[in-house]
Amino acid sequence: MEFPQPNVEQFFQTLVISDFAVAPDESQLLYSTNINGAFNLWAMDLPHTYPYPLTTVNQDSHGMQYAESGSFAVVGFDRDGDELSQLYALHPEGGPLVPLLEKEGERHMGAKLTKDSKWLYYSTTRENPTYLNIERLNLETYERELMLEGEEAAHQLTALSPEGTSFVFVKVYANTYILPFLCDSGEVVALTPETAEHHTVSGIVYTSERDVYMLTNYDADRSYLARMNLDERRFEVVTTAETGEFSNLTYSKKEHALYVTATAGVSDLLYRYDLTGGNLTAVEAPVENIVKLTAADSGTLYMLGRGATMPFNLFQKRLGETWEPLTNHKVPGVPRDIMSEPEVLNYRSFDDLEIEALFFPARKEAANGHTILWPHGGPQASERKMFRSLFQLLAYEGYNILAPNFRGSSDYGLSFKKMVEGDWGYGPRLDNIYALEYVIEHGYADREKLLLMGGSYGGYMALLLHGRHPEYFKAVVDIFGVSNLFSFVKSVPDFWKPIMQQWLGDPEDDYDRFVTDSPITYLDQMTKPMLVIQGANDPRVVQEESDQIVDALRENGVDVEYLVLEDEGHGFSKKENEIEVYQRVLEFFARYV
Ligand SMILES: CC(=O)N[C@@H](C)C(=O)N[C@@H](C)C(=O)N[C@@H](C)C(=O)O
């Protein structure tokens, strides 16, 4: 039997899994996925893996967790991308949800259930939208109790002790300045030593009622494993990563061990740190990008992950055994070996700074010689070996994709990440230009065949590159990009505002730089055809950012297509919208090839 070649439609059907939780007795695995075209909660009754639906809300969910008894789970949903997460109780068999915290305009974050399931702790924007308060909800009386009032910086709850006698929260002063604190019977204690040096802390876990482990770059450039015993209150360095830096932590009670994810630039590595013997050993991982790892009481590990050519999948690893897939999501009809495997490039920028980039080659049979420059979003994030159906779709259709991890990207140490702070538009912009020059010089790309596309900060960079270096590009796609730093700084969510000074600067004190680095300043040079895409509910880069650049360009007579998705935020969560976006991008670029 001869089957036709796969076509682009196949890439539209790729499934996403955004989060999961496993019942304490491991009888059920709950996950948020878009099997039915929109996100819903689905479950599998382990060891059987056939999924069944639990909700029909058509909204994505993050931060789900089971009660210790397994009799309900706490789940959060926002509405069409507004990121105002509301919390509900879900019966393991699904059906109508019980509202726990449902208040219009309020955002609830980092929810954690106590072991006895009597209390739910969380951070909330209620009465303190900028610095957030930490509260707890009595699940018998539904009364809310204030535990800690936020001040100075956003207070985000990160861990609750096993018996609920203490909790850890972080104060977020900036993306590169995040300090951890313990709240122990009302007393607040810093978990890292006092210093004026900026550092961050992540992956905080309790391994007992009085022992806390964390990942921090306190007094270092790359994050390492540290601990504090809450009685001795002494901060200790435990171990450092051989390559890269540690980025996530999971405690396995059964093994009395920590599983530590390390990021080494564009891919992840997995380690096991034995808390009894004190040794760190490498563990094979089934994916290049570990999204989430949990350990059940039995010692079985559960992982959500993806790779450059593998969409999101769930895996299970029983003690002493190897990883087994629980899901088998692929691009229908497209084998992994015909997808684009990225090459890792290293080049030097204008000031000799070494930068890493991913280059996704076009499928040979379809190659049209065009290269799309993709500046990633964040900007303090990075482009990694993580499946993006849009990238694979474009590479399949014949385009190369170049994704540089310009200065300011995460996963290359604290000082590298800080390089974008107060410099959104100079160094990172030239790093993108130097990436182009590198691929042209080394025969990967043709100077006459360059296209440009980015989302969020990447959309900002796409607009800025268009305005300042229009000679490079034939056409530009901006997906919810920042167009004007003066309006952006005022429109971000309230709890981002304490971060803005360090992240971006002050519109009055840094007036000249805001003008120089705002894409809208360069309207007259933006002469190439453009496609602008925006979610109407986006709370991070609001619609006004896209509206103003589209209006101004149209007044200038520039050919701009504008697509606004009414039921989306900072991303595309509904299959029909995703398909519309991908089709528009494909059609748009095809016109200029
Ligand atoms: C800790 C925190 O909330 N930081 C935010 C200011 C932040 O860095 N958010 C980015 C992930 C983000 O959403 N940036 C936009 C502009 C993007 O490029 O995606």
From TrEMBL:
It comes from the Bacteria. GO terms for biological process: proteolysis. GO terms for molecular function: aminopeptidase activity; serine-type endopeptidase activity. Residues 387-592 form the Peptidase S9 prolyl oligopeptidase catalytic domain. It holds the Pfam family Peptidase_S9. This enzyme catalyzes the hydrolysis of the N-terminal peptide bond of an N-acetylated peptide to generate an N-acetylated amino acid and a peptide with a free N-terminus. It preferentially cleaves off Ac-Ala, Ac-Met and Ac-Ser. Also, involved in the degradation of oxidized and glycated proteins. This is Acyl-peptide hydrolase. It comes from Salsuginibacillus halophilus.
